[in-house]
Amino acid sequence: MEYMPQPLRVLVTGASRGIGRACAEAFAQAGHTVTAVARTGDQLASLKAACGEHVEVLVADLTEDLQLTGTYDVVVLNAAYFAPGGLLDTRDVFGESFTLNVLANHRLARQLLPAMRDRKSGHLLVIGSTSTDDTSPHMTAYAATKKALRALYEGWEQELIGSGVRTTLIAPGATLTSSWDGQELPPRMLAAAEVAALVYRAVTQGLTGRIVLRADQP
Ligand SMILES: NC(=O)c1ccc[n+]([C@@H]2O[C@H](COP(=O)([O-])OP(=O)(O)OC[C@H]3O[C@@H](n4cnc5c(N)ncnc54)[C@H](OP(=O)(O)O)[C@@H]3O)[C@@H](O)[C@H]2O)c1
């Protein structure tokens, strides 16, 4: 990879809370410049209040076709919607979440990756999930979207080999965030900051490929 400018220009989707917010904070606290995307303006404002000039907020709904104008060295595709649900349940969780969990990432990658490839520099990080490995019935709809995202990631990874652009798929296990509101919590969970620390380390140490992180990992 060619030299990446410092401070890094970092885009984080779904940065108002949870893992995305922790990623935004990790990069901002290290002095990088973060563009934080989400729909909820007041949560983004509190991130900005905590991180100051290192964060710029972009209030946007990623299920709409967002046209980005900035140049980014690091892109963290994190935003996703989780709800328990099977494919044949009354509530169509797969249909509800597909646009955000899959299509929005496809659109952003098509916008952002060609410029990185032309610059022969940059790092794309995708937040996947261990749900693509561990099938459980109440996770079917969500896991189907994450499997589609994993397939897209594997395609981007292949297409960017030798381009100078790094690609990493971070696959966390259960992580304590608002995704779990109203649900029974598993006995062991990751903290959002642990996932963010891995994302940050992947960028600073150039870790690529699929990396699984579980709470019970030694
Ligand atoms: N938590 C877990 O156990 C776990 C485990 C494995 C993988 N993951 C993955 O980790 C990532 C983050 O999960 P999380 O648990 O941190 O989620 P979360 O706490 O529910 O946060 C989701 C983020 O996405 C944003 N978002 C939701 N809909 C959006 C939309 N239409 N447009 C723009 N932004 C939107 C939310 O902000 P607004 O509502 O303000 O828009 C929020 O910032 C996801 O990819 C998830 O699949 C989570």
Low-confidence stretches: none
The main sheet orders its strands as: 3-2-1-4-5-6-9
Named at the architecture level, the CATH assignment is 3-Layer(aba) Sandwich
Described by the principal axes of the CA atoms, the overall outline is globular
- Which structural category do the helix and sheet elements fall into? alpha/beta
What's the count of strands? 9
CATH domain topology: Rossmann fold
Order of helices and strands: EHEHEEHEHEEEHE
Protein name: Oxidoreductase
Family: Belongs to the short-chain dehydrogenases/reductases (SDR) family.
Pfam families: adh_short
Keywords: Oxidoreductase
What features would you describe in this structure?
The chain contains 5 helices and 9 strands, in the order βαβαββαβαβββαβ. The protein has 218 residues and is α/β, with parallel strands linked by helices. α1 crosses α5 and α3 packs parallel to α4. A 7-stranded parallel sheet has the order 3-2-1-4-5-6-9, with helices on both faces. It has a two-stranded parallel ribbon with strand order 7-8. Helices cover 39% and strands 19% of the residues. The protein has a single domain, classed as 3-Layer(aba) Sandwich (Rossmann fold). Pfam families: adh_short. Keywords: Oxidoreductase. It comes from Neolewinella maritima. This is Oxidoreductase. One of its GO terms (molecular function) is oxidoreductase activity.
